[in-house]
Amino acid sequence: MRHNKTINHLGRTSSHRQAMFSNMASSLIKHKRNFTTTAKAKALRKYVEPLITKSKEDSTHSRREVFALFQDKNAVTELFKKISEKALDRPGGYTRIIKTGNRLGDNAAMCFIELVDFNENMLKDRKKVTAKTRRSRKKTTTAPSPEAPPKAEVKAPEAPLPAEE
User: Do the beta carbons of residue 29 and residue 79 sit within 8 Å?
Assistant: First the structure.
């Protein structure tokens, strides 16, 4: 049974897992996209998204907290300069996982993990979402609209009356 098993250990020790997440997260921040297995991507999402949330507040304390996990000065600078700007209006969900199929060697499920606001192909298709407003019903009018031409009435042909004798 899987009771209280919330962390996917990925077959690694704790120190190896932390080092792997640190490397993968800094690679994701620098390149905006990473190709990896689905299990690692799901675990990386739990690691990266709180860091992006911390980057919204650009203070010395939050920079030090993020640097303690990344250990990469360039990735921290990139996170606080470019990524936090685009993430300000987003309340969460900064990453997207796109499954690509299975790896040939061991049939492991593979995917892309990418930052949502940096994929130009997906941003083109996205339409501007506006807040929906309540609308009242349109009132029906008896006058014909000026756009449509008036319809001619077609009468059914009358049948001749039977002759009375």
Answer: yes
